[in-house]
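Methods — Computational structure assignment.
A single polypeptide chain was analysed. Its primary sequence is given first, followed by the predicted tertiary structure written as structure tokens.
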Amino acid sequence: MLNSLSILIPCYNGLCTELVRSLQAQAGIIANDNGFLYEIIVGDDGSTDSDVLKKNNEINSIPNCRYIIRGFNSGRAAIRNFLAKTAKYEWLLFIDCDMEVRNPEYLANYVKMNIGTVVYGGYVINGDGKLLKNNLRYIYEKKYDGNSSAAKRARHPYNDFHTSNFIVRHEIMTAHPLDERFRKYGYEDVIWGKALHENGIAISHVDNPLSFEKFESNADFLAKTEEGLNTLHKFYNELKGYSDLIDITEKLEKLHLSQTVILIYNVTKKMIKNNLRGNKPNVFLFNIYKLGTFCRIRKSYF
């Protein structure tokens, strides 16, 4: 059983007050029962939305909670490292600010566990399917939601890891911080999983999910996807073996088929992007879009 826990939430232009209140309510019950020590720290990584900054400032009035405004954007890895350095307790729980707590026993589940060094709890996709039927991110996440159970994630424990909901011993995070070269969207969690693998540090997978139910527009999701694909290319050699897209691309290049993929994609790109931005986005076309875009990015650097 955990005796103390620092709950750490990196934030960029996201409202966190309700998430913090729900976590603090659960932590308060556990603390009243057995003297459990906790803190909740939200680290703002250079948010530009003044309304978000104003509303999130309410977090400072919640017991055992802090909202730290850094005033500049340091990147997805660096803000998590900052939070780890700021935390004071033995165990760290990282939660993304766009997650929701739907299980009243969420924190209690972690506190009661016999935890090793790193534990990933996963997430589930929720939301009104009728209202979100035209949302690409929702449709895409929902299609692969069946692969999110702990049993399936444990088959590839280092590849199927995300920073959205995990517990780590403080000393492990201090000795193996996230790679701060990863400033843009994507893969800072994958490269950290690889670092743990190389250092013989196990990642355990459990079913203690948070709920993901905030989905950006189709256009914003495509822009975020392209940013992630550029990140993947930038760290291509380091991410080999930890990305299905790299594995597929390498097979195409060995068969001298990548140029053919690019030619076909160039002809169909407009049609595909119109579909993905539209009211009936297709997941198969989204996967083709990712492959075609990544092959083009690769080609542009040679």
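Note: The mean pLDDT is 94.
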